[in-house]
Each structure stands twice: as structure tokens, then as C-alpha cells.
Amino acid sequence: STLKEKNSLGFGRALESILASERLPFSCLRNITQTLMDTLKNQELESIDEGLLQFCANKLKLLHLYESVSQLNSLDFHSDTPFSDNDLAVLLRLDEKELLKLQALLEKYKEEKTRTATVRFSDDKDGVLPVKTFLEYLEYEKDVINIKKISEEEYVALGSFFFWKCLHGESSTEDMCHTLESAGLSPQLLLSLLLSVWLSKEKDILDKPQSVCCLHTMLSLLSKMKVAIDETWDSQSVSPWWQQMRTACIQSENNGAALLSAHVGHSVAAQISNNMTEKKTVLGADSEALTDSWEALSLDTEYWKLLLKQLEDCLILQTLLHSKANSPASKPSSLQAEPLPRLSVKKLLAGGKGGIADSVAKWIFKQDFSPEVLKLANKERDAENPDEPKEGINRGLPEVSEVDMNLGAIPDLLHLAYKQFPCSLELDVLHAHCCWEYVVQWNKDPEEARFFVRSIEHLKHILNAHVQNGVALMMWNTFLVKRFSAATYLMDKVGKSPKDRLCRRDVGMSDTAMTSFLGSCLDLLQTLMEADVSRDEMQAPVLDTEDAWLTVEGPISIVELALEQKHVHYPLVEHHSVLCSVLYAVMRFALKTVKPLSLFDSKGKNAFFKDLTSIQLLPSGEMDPNFISVRQQFLLKVVSAAVQAQHSVVKDKESSEEAPSAPFGKDQDWPVLAVDLAHHLQVSEDVIRRHYVGELYNYGVDHLGEEAILQVHDREVLASQLLVLTGQRLAHALLHTQTREGMELLARLPPTLCTWLKAMNPQDLQNTEVPIATTAKLVNKVIELLPENHGQYSLALHLIEAVEAISTSL
């Protein structure tokens, strides 16, 4: 007995080893297995090893199946039946309009997918499987063939061996189905293999519409097999057979192939249901049974309709996500180069209410076009629904700067997606997700300042103040306040704009990135204040979901989270906004000897970096004059630096090296901001305005100075300041040049004027090249501003004489 077992084991291993050989031809493998089996059968009854005999029989059955399939695939079979669009419409139970729509969607999908797809050469081996591999994949047990645990790729290879030629009309579908069923493969297993091939070979299928007809035939044949559709299934429930097919479509990331197979499944299911109903009618089934069958039909039909809508939506979304602008607005970063995950209905259903907007926001981040593009694509939607109220306020947003960049099909595809998802891709929802996506990506690499700038642009485009308030507050708490406080303490410690190394160490970004960061923080805080004011004028939005996506589950969406946020405490946001303006000015103009926190008293300092929704004790009443003085000096410094940055004439290279670089994005109107800060810091606004006018004249931009005078209240004090500046200009013209004509002219002037001019210091002038005619206009402006009883009025009149004399002499 032991010897018999050893022999059997040896024979079994030897056969396995032979069958695993890659070199032996198929006929040789079959003959060896057959010979071994015949030998075993011819042994005496008591010495036959049943296990080994069964092993040989099973392998032989698999070899016969392999041979049958290979023969069917090698026959010169071609389905020459012409196949028109009308035939396709009939086959899929669609009218002409529905078919045209389906074809147009698939064509767009194919176009955009082809543009982004990596080159795939046609695989000549599709449908070919070595016998060794075939035997490794399958096992025979109790007259049933099962598939071993194999990878997805191997599963597709096995399915291709059975069905690829059939789907191409190059092998008889009827013969193949009969062969596979006779061999002991269950219809459920065959359906699974068929769908795995169909869904994975999308490109080939979309290029050959006739394959739809082949799939229809194949599916009809599989569905008619025994135990495919259980005729006794509870008519109140869903057919497990069709549910299996729908599940495969739901999980597939090849949306074009999935949508086509769902149309085929829906058509075959309807055809079979109709046949069953007719059969029952002919057999005279009672009315209750008929009603049951119609209810079952309607339940399954509803599931098919829902799936078709979901797949169509998914296809449109995936088409959009494949599309690319022809010329990107800027060089993409490594974060923008990461590929997007592919979509499936299953993924969208598990992505939560914001899953659809989130996937589009990730695509927008990679394209990096202006938020205005989203608005433009939506204009057609507005034109289609002119009666819909437009909530919110337009904050004077700039027109698209990137419209001249070639967007290709993007606006049309966006518009189509908006129509398909009126709730999920509502503009505020989309802007909120874009805003969040950009700030998340910026947080990964804070050197990419433009991401944060773009995030704020999307934030400003959100029209509903409730959503805007919530998103801004979440951004502040999640990504900004920690870095903002680090920047404050660093700048206060060094007492000036910190060097690059310190910024990187303490705040986690370079000095230039930190400048932009503070500018964007200021934008965010100002937007938060605007939203807080606007919120009372409008209602919070109702977040609806499209009917096809009501069963969506998963994480809470950004907009839902935003609407859960508390109201901010406006004065506390304003308090942070003042500090942010101070920090931004110090960095923007590389100011020295400024400790930002020294501008605030202890109450003011304690309130910083606290939760913006909390009530904090803030400075109130009269401020200590020492604080006012420090604040005023700071604001005057900012105005001087702002005018210098805009109007300075670079005199030599040394001074240009110190000049701060302009920030990324649009710069602030600093003089206006300084006046606004003066109001918050209890500094006289008029002092700041007068200083601004003086600085404009100092830099020789008299035309702007003249405009700025209109904002000044105390023009008498301003006139005295401008009088000194005029004296400096004339002193430079007469004394600094040291010409003979100048000296003679000086001698002819009244002694008091001459003495006054000699006391002037022209070195304070930033621009000494101002034409004398321009200075003459300034003198007239000073006389216009001074009252006649003013102590310096006569001096101003003398200046007119001096200017006229210079005009004619020099």
C-alpha cells in the first residue's frame, strides 16, 4: 500500500511537471496525459489509485476544453453582417436622438482620453494563452470548472482567451458559449470573465462599434443558460444575475466601456423580461403572478435606469478630467504634475456630498486657470435660466486674464458638466472646493506662493457669505494662524524684516514667500470681515443632491463643514487685520527698526492669535500718546517707502540692491491702506494724507500730488510743507549748480528770500530734475492754499518772482 501511494505520488508529480513545461507542444501533453490515464484504467481494480485517476481525468478535461476553444478561435470565421446606426439603436432600445447623444458623449470621451493616454501598441497576443498558463489558472472539481486565485491581469487574459475573438466577430459566439457551458463553467463565472475583458479593453471596443452587437449576442446566450437567471426568484427582489453585471459596471474605471455594457445589459434584461411575461400570458398565469412579474421588471428596470444615468454622469466628468488647456498659464509644479485618480461610479458614491466637486477642483488645480473661466463657462447656464435669482454681491472682480490662453474644449466640457451636476457643481460649491484644494497644496510647499494667491481668488468668488465665512475661517484655523503667529514673533524679535534663513527656520518658508503669505493673509482677513457683514443680507444655501446620487456616502463636504462654522467676532478679525497690514508692510518694503507688537498695548497683544469666533478684551478709549507717536512714525515710514517703491529714480546700483521686489499678484494701494490703518490706530488720518502729498512732490510726480491734495483737510498746514519743498527745489537750481547766471540771479532776489533759500537743504529732495515750469505750478498751488493773512504768504509771492526770473534766465 505504501509503495502504491509512493508510485501514485511520483506519477502525479511527474505529470504536473510535464504539464508545466513550456517547451512541449499541446498534442504531446494531451497524449501523455491520455496514455497515463489509459494505463491506470487497465490496472487491476484493487491497485487503481482513484485520486491519481481523477487527477488525470480532470487535467484531460481541461486540455480538451483548451483544444476546443483554440480550434474555435483559429477558424476563419467572420461575421459579415452589415451593422448600421439604426441596427445599433434597435439593439440598445434607444431612439435616434438618444443614440446620437450617446455617440457624441463617447466620441468626446475618446478624443480627450486619447490626448492624455500613454501610447499603447496593439497587442497581437490578445486572445492567445499558452496551455501551461491555462492549466495554472483553472481547476476541475466535481464536474465544475473553477478559477484559482489569480490577479486582475491574469483574469483578463483568461477572459480574452475565451471571448476576445467572439467580441471581434472573428469566432462563433454560439459555439463558444455551448463549449464553455458543456465543460462545466458556470454562467456567473463566464459573465464575470466576459465583463472583465470588455471593461479592460476599452480602447479597442470604442474603436469597433460592432463589438456591441457581439456583446449583446454573448450576454443573451449566457443569460439563457441554466441557473443564470433563476426563474423562481422572488419577484419582489432584484435579480442577482443582473445585479452582478451592474456591480461590475459600478466598479469599473473605464467609463465608456461600462456605459456601453450597461446599455447592452439593460436591453437584454428588458428582452428576457418581456419574453417571460409573454410566456406567462400564453400559459394563462393568474393576474397576481403577472402583477408580481411586472413589479420585478419595474424594480430591475429602475436600477438599470439609475445605473445608466450614473455612468453617463461619470463619463462626462471623466471626459472633463481628461481635458487639458493647450498652453498652461505658468510652468507647472511637481504637485500639479501628479496624475489624477480615475473615476468610477463606486468611487463617486463613496466620496461624500462633495466628492464630485472635489474631483473637479483637483483637475482645476492641475490646469491652474483663472476662477473667471469657471464663471464664463457658467454664463450659458445663466442664459438658459434667466429667471433664477443671482444671490450675493459682485465685488468688482477682474475679467479673465487667461482667456487668451487656448482653453480648447474646456469651456464646453465644463458647461456640459454643470448641466449634468446642477447641485454638486453649483459655482459656490466648486469655488469652495477649489479654494480648499489650492490651500492644501500650498501647505505642502509654501514656496509656491501663487497657490495661496489662487486660493484667495477662489474664496473671493464665493457669492454666498455663509459659505465664504466658513471656508475662510477653516483656512485660517487649519493652515494659517500657526505660521502667522510664528512670523509675528520672529519679526518682533529681530525688529525688522527678517533674513531668508530665519524665515525658513521659524515660519517654514523663504523671505519672499513670507511676504506673499502675509499679503494673502490680509486678503483673507478682509474677505472674512466682508462676509461677516454680508451674511445678514442673505440666507444660508440649501445643499441639494442630484436624484441619481442620493445614495452617496462618505466624508462630510467642505461646504457642509463651512456652514457649521460659528460667526466670527468682527472686531477681533479687524484687530488681526491691522497686525497683518503692519507685518506685510515691514516685509514688503524691507523696513528696519520696527517691532510690530510695540504698536499695541497689553490688551491688544493678548488678543492676538485667539479663536476668531471668541469675544476678547480689546483696546478701547484714548490710547497713550507714546503709542500714538510710535504708530504715526511707522505709518509715515510706510507711505515714504510706498512712494519710493513706485516712483524712485534709481541713482546708482547700491540703492537699487536694497529695493524690495514687488510681490506675486496684485500689490496693495499702500497710501490708502496707511490712511485706513491710521483710523484704526488712532493716528490723525490727515497727517498721513499730507505726508503722502509731500512725498509725491518730493519724488517729482507733481500731477499725482495735485490729485492727492483733494483728500487733505488741513490744507494750510500742507501749504507750509509744500512751501519748504519749493524752496528746496529753487535752492538746488540756484545754489547747487553753482553757475554764474545762478549767482547773479540770486543777488537780484530780495534779501529775505535769498537768506531763506540759503537755509534750505536740497539734499532731502528725491528728484532734482523737475522742470522749472512744473515748480511754477506748485508755487501757484501753494498761494492758492495759503490764506492771505498767513505769515508765509508774502514769501510765497516772492517765490513767484524767483521762479519767473529763473525761467527766463536759466
Could you describe the 3D structure shown?
There is one protein chain. 66% of the residues lie in helices and 1% in strands. It is mainly alpha-helical and 810 residues long. It is built from 37 helices and two strands. A two-stranded antiparallel sheet has the order 1-2. It has four domains: 1-74 and 125-227, no CATH class; 87-116 and 239-277 and 300-323, no CATH class; 351-380 and 409-583, no CATH class; 687-809, no CATH class. It has helices at residues 2-19, 26-41, 50-74, 85-92, 96-116, 131-137, 152-167, 173-183, 187-200, 202-207, 210-224, 240-251, 255-282, 287-322, 334-337, 345-349, 355-367, 371-384, 410-420, 427-444, 449-461, 465-494, 500-507, 511-534, 558-563, 570-588, 602-607, 625-647, 653-658, 670-680, 685-698, 702-709, 715-736, 740-748, 751-758, 772-785, 793-809, and strands at residues 138-141, 144-147.
